[in-house]
Amino acid sequence: MPHLDVKDLAFRYEDMAMQFDLAVERGTFLSIIGPSGAGKSTLLSLIGGFERPLSGQVLVDGADITSLAPAERPCTTLFQDHNLFAHLSVERNVALGIDPDLRLSEAQRAEVRQSLADVGLAGMEHRLPGQLSGGERQRAAIARCLVRHRPILLLDEPFAAVGPGLRREMLDLVRALQARLGLTIVMVTHDPGDARHAGGRTAFVQAGHIVLVDDTERVLGSQMPEVRAYLGS
Fold first, then answer.
1. How many Å apart are CA 158 and CA 138, to the nearest integer?
2. What is the distance between the alpha carbons of residues 109 and 68, in angstroms, rounded to a whole number?
3. Are residues 17 and 69 in the same domain?
């Protein structure tokens, strides 16, 4: 049974009718690529619960989560805009992932500190986001995702605004955390190089449909006209 199963998921945006089918095994790193406007981020929003489908199902381990609110789903989403609150310390920003009211037990505070250490931010707990580099802010956002203890991590172009070197560094961090925690990761990216660096599997989206899913190198080497046109080759 797939860990994440998207079945006949229908959605309409303006004049585009979308329908998605996707099965993701537990522990997979799946990149989603395709032309701008093809529906990549919409698919991620449907999985995360930020958009509601016209029909179809989102299943996790066979359980239907289609009607659940985002906070009730066994997944957490990291967006390009990391949404750190400028007036809160890094520690308190991460703590929001556990309790929006910031009423944490000592054990939970220790968990926040451990999460920050896991992403390389030990000793920076009391800094404000404005005192961090772009990469450090991304790390803090990842730490906030980790403390939610959701088995599925959805990445919506979270590293698009940073340079290639830092993107690779962030992808390496996410892959290391995935291996240690057994996460299933679905990442939307506009850069096929991100998919290649992440490895794993890749889904190609065209005009609101997933037209190819395979190991990443096979997708990037596909002779499908749509893929070749997208890659410019």
1. 8
2. 28
3. yes
Whether 113 and 125 have beta carbons less than 8 Å apart is answered as yes
Half-sphere exposure of 191 (CA within 13 A, CB side): 16
One-letter amino acid of 96: L
* Domain match, 38 and 133 both: no
Q: Provide the whole-model pTM.
A: 0.89
CA dist., res. 102 & res. 58, Å (int): 31
Q: Give residue for tokens 């899913």.
A: 213
Q: How far is CA 53 from CA 67, 154, 193, 222, in A?
A: 9, 18, 30, 30
Q: What is the pLDDT of residues 15-53, one digit of tens each?
A: 889 999 999 999 999 999 999 999 999 999 999 999 999
DSSP 3-state helix, strand, coil percentages of the chain (rounded to 5)? 35, 25, 40
Q: pLDDT tens digits for 85-101?
A: 888 899 999 998 888 88
163 and 114 in a single domain? The answer is no
CATH of the domain at 179: 3.40.50.300
* Length of the chain counted residue by residue: 233
**124, 86 contact by CB (below 8 A):** no
58 secondary structure, DSSP code: E
